[in-house]
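call fold(seq) -> C-alpha cells
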Amino acid sequence: MASEMMEALMALCQEKHIDELYLLDRLEKSLAESYADVMHMPFGARVTIDRSTGRFYVYERVPKEDSPLDEEGEPTEFDLEDVTPPDMSRIAAQHAKQEINAIVRNAGREQIYREFSGRIGDIITGTVLQSTPDFTIIKIREGVEAELPHFDLKRFPDERNERPQGERYSHNQRLKAIIIDVRDPNANVQPIRGERSRPSIVVSRTHPDLIRRLFELEVPEVYDGIVEIRSVAREAGVRSKVAVSSIDDRLDPVGACVGPKGSRVRTVVSELRGERVDVVQWSDDPARCVENALSPARVTSVLVDEENNYATVIVPDEELSNAIGKRGQNARLAARLTGMHIDIKNEELAARVVADLRAAGGLAEDLIGEDEEQEHRCEYVAPNGVRCRNMARPGSAYCGIHEQMAAVDAAEVSDDPDSLV
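ret:
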C-alpha cells in the first residue's frame, strides 16, 4: 500500500512538473506539525518518509539532559524518540492531503506564470466558463484559465474593470481578449481578495491594444508591418479612433484597414460587439493630423502651437456639432489620438473676432497695395518656422485667423487634453 502511494506521488510529480524531493520535504514538515499537535509533543516532532516504501516514521524531539539553553530559556539540543503510531491518524492524513493539494496548485500557477509572463500584450481566444457579478472566467485551453475582471470600482477601488460598457457574456461564448497581467505566485506582495481561487492570468477587453491586435489578425498589411498603427484612442464599448500610416507610398493605409466594402473593419467591429471604429490617416504634419483626427467633420483651418502642444481648429458653422461630437466625444478622442489640446471654433465666431479687431484698427498694418490683390497664400510664419497653409484675405497679406488667435490667447485655457475650451 505504501509503495503504491509513493508511485502515485511520483506520477503526480511527473505530470505536474514538480520536484520529487521538494514535495517530500514539504510533506515531511507538514506531517511533523500535524503529529506534534495531535500527539501533544511540547518540543515538536520530526517525520521522515522512506523514499522506497513510502512508510512514515514519527520521532518526538526530547531535550537532552545537558542541553544548553537559548535566550528564552528553551533547550537547543534534542534526542529523537521513535513514536511512530501503528496507523496514520485521520487528522494527519487530512493535513497531508491539503499540503499535497497546495503544492500541486502552487506548482500549476508557477508553470502558468513561466509560460505567460512573457506574453503580456498578446491576444488570446477563449471560451466563457463562468460569469459572476465581479469577474468572468475564460478557458484558454485545458487546465489554463484567465480572469476578465469587471468589479464595481466604487465598492472595490483596488480592483479592475476590464469589461466594455454594455457587454454581457454567456456560457460557452467565445471571446477575444488581451493579456494585461500574470500574477506571480511567489511575489512577496499582499494577496488580492480571493487570489488563491482566481486564475493567474488577467485579460482585458477595454485596452486600446486589443484593437491593434484585432487589426493584425484581420489586415495582412498590418501584420507584415507595411501598414503601421500609429495611435489608438478608445472609449470602450462606444467608439474608437485609429490612426494609420504606410511605409509604401503606393498603398492607401486607410483603405487597407477598411477592406473591400468595409469587410475588414466590419470584422473588428463585430468582435467589439458593435463599437464604432474610425480609421484615419496619420500625418507628420500636426495640423494635417489634427484635421484627419476630427474626421468625419470638415475643417476649414488648423493653427498649431507645437511648443505648447495646442491646436486651434476653425470649422464651418454647420460642422461645429459634428466636430465636437456627442458630449464632446469626437473632440475628446481626437485629442487623445494626437496627444494635443484641441480648441474648436466655428467660422462665425472667428469672423466676429476678426471684425472686432478690424474695427479697433488692429489689422491696418497688414494691408497691401491694390496691385497685389491677386489670390495668394497667407504670409504668416509661426514661431516654430511653419508657414500658414491658408489663403490670404483679399487686400491683405494674411488670412486673419492669427489675429483671432492673439485675441483668444489672453483667455484662460484648461490643461486637460479632453477639454474643449
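The longest helix spans residues 90-116.
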